[in-house]
Structure formats: C-alpha cells, structure tokens
Amino acid sequence: MPVPMYADQGAPPPPDDSEAAGQPPPPDQTAARDSDNNLRDRMRAEPLPPEETEYVFVRRDGSLIFAVGYSLINDRLQYVTAEGLRRTIPLNTLDLGATQQFNEQRGVAIRLPA
To answer: What's the whole-model pTM score?
Structure first.
C-alpha cells in the first residue's frame, strides 16, 4: 500500500556548493544573514513587553473567570478572554468582595462598583 509523502518530509536539501568549496555565499544570502544578525541584536537590546495583566472574577457559585480586559456597562461585566473572546455577564452573578480580595492578593488593581 503506498504511503503519502509530503513536501516537508523529503530529504534535506544538499549543501550549497559555494559553502562546501570555501567560497563566500552569494550576495543575497549574505544580505539575509546580515539582516538576521541585525534583528537578533535589536531583539536583545529592546526590553520585553510587559506581561499582560490577567484579572480574575469570582462568581457567586465559586467558579472563576479569567480575563485580560474588562469594562463595566450598567449592571453588566463585559470581559475579554486571553483567546480574544468577548463575553458579558450580569454583575449580580459575581462575588464582588471575593473578586476584589483575590486580585489584590495577586497585586492586580481592579475597579469594581461598591
């Protein structure tokens, strides 16, 4: 029975003759390598972006909701998950005191209605 073969499963490409013979690589390869080296140097020099703050909301039933962003709209909480999904739930389904305490213990500032 034949077995399917995909392009990325083939044998590795043969080495470049110019490198094997000790000759300098063609100019287009040299430019690409220089660009890669410049990118690496810039990445080392630039500070890492701050980690995304994760908010935790505690529901009255004890379950947790994790969000990277949120807003309060009238009597509803609208939040965004780490996957980018936007959800909305009624505020009265949350334990606001437990939510505030949970986030404070983690060092995350959160603003909730009193």
So the answer is: 0.56
